[in-house]
């Protein structure tokens, strides 16, 4: 009587299959989680260029020239062009005044000279396109502001504009027609400069509220505005940062209501 030869093939148990499936599930889950996390970071975080814009605008507004030098070097290293940074520094003057803006430009020239001595040649970038002198400037500025706020301005004017009609004209003709109408920087980038300056100066809550709302209108996401706050935590005073946080919280609360 012959004994039946035992099979040498491995026996795959159901429990082993389940264990393998569980491991595979968690591996795929982890890979998917990492991929989604990276995608969220890429889509919602501020870029290095945008972070540099915040720092440059914030330090310029405060007259912190030593830290501004570092931010300017970083901005150029992060591939902001010379003309983009120059446009940021020019834009600052509309909210912080000529003295701060001019000191920022002077500091930038020194940084460029220092980099040339080190053999670094920075990209100049596109020049600003001349603004065609067509149409009434007041109406051009009004249309740009309406685009930023997303509604018509044909209703009643704020009390300060009734009290000072010349201020209304200066805002429309100069701030929005002369400055916001320029290219090199987009509306989104200009709003980023604006909220960086206003938050860094402090005690300007109504204006910060207005421009945070404008920032949402031109495409900044709430999570990106939180990253904005995180950035100015490194450039502005604790008091200014707390105020900016509180204002942003109220703005976002009203948006979600």
TrEMBL record:
<dbReference type="InterPro" id="IPR052512">
    <property type="entry name" value="4CMD/NDH-1_regulator"/>
</dbReference>
<feature type="domain" description="Carboxymuconolactone decarboxylase-like">
    <location>
        <begin position="165"/>
        <end position="225"/>
    </location>
</feature>
<dbReference type="InterPro" id="IPR003779">
    <property type="entry name" value="CMD-like"/>
</dbReference>
<feature type="domain" description="Carboxymuconolactone decarboxylase-like">
    <location>
        <begin position="38"/>
        <end position="104"/>
    </location>
</feature>
<dbReference type="InterPro" id="IPR029032">
    <property type="entry name" value="AhpD-like"/>
</dbReference>
<protein>
    <submittedName>
        <fullName>Uncharacterized conserved protein YurZ, alkylhydroperoxidase/carboxymuconolactone decarboxylase family</fullName>
    </submittedName>
</protein>
<dbReference type="Pfam" id="PF02627">
    <property type="entry name" value="CMD"/>
</dbReference>
């Amino acid at each position: 009587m012959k004994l039946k030869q035992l099979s040498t093939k491995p026996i795959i148990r159901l429990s082993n299959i389940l264990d393998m499936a569980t491991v595979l599930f968690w591996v795929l889950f982890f890979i998917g989680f990492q991929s989604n996390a990276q995608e969220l970071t890429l889509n919602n975080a501020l870029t290095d260029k945008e972070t540099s814009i915040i720092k440059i605008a914030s330090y310029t507004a405060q007259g912190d020239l030593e830290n501004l030098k570092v931010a300017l070097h970083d901005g150029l290293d992060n591939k902001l062009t010379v003309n983009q940074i120059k446009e940021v520094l020019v834009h600052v003057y509309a909210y912080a005044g000529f003295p701060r803006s001019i000191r920022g430009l002077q500091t930038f020239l020194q940084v460029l000279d220092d980099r040339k001595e080190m053999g670094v040649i920075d990209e100049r970038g596109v020049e600003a396109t001349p603004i065609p002198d067509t149409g009434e400037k007041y109406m051009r500025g009004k249309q740009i502001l309406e685009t930023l706020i997303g509604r018509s301005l044909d209703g009643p004017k704020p009390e300060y504009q009734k009290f000072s009609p010349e201020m209304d004209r200066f805002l429309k003709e100069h701030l929005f027609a002369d400055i916001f109408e320029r290219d090199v920087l987009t509306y989104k980038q200009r709003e980023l400069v604006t909220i960086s300056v206003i938050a860094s100066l402090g005690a300007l809550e109504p204006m910060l509220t207005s421009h945070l709302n404008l920032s949402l209108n031109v495409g900044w996401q709430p999570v990106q505005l939180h990253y904005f706050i995180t950035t100015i935590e490194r450039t502005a005073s604790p008091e200014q940062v707390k105020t900016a946080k509180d204002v942003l919280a109220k703005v976002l609360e009203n948006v979600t209501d």
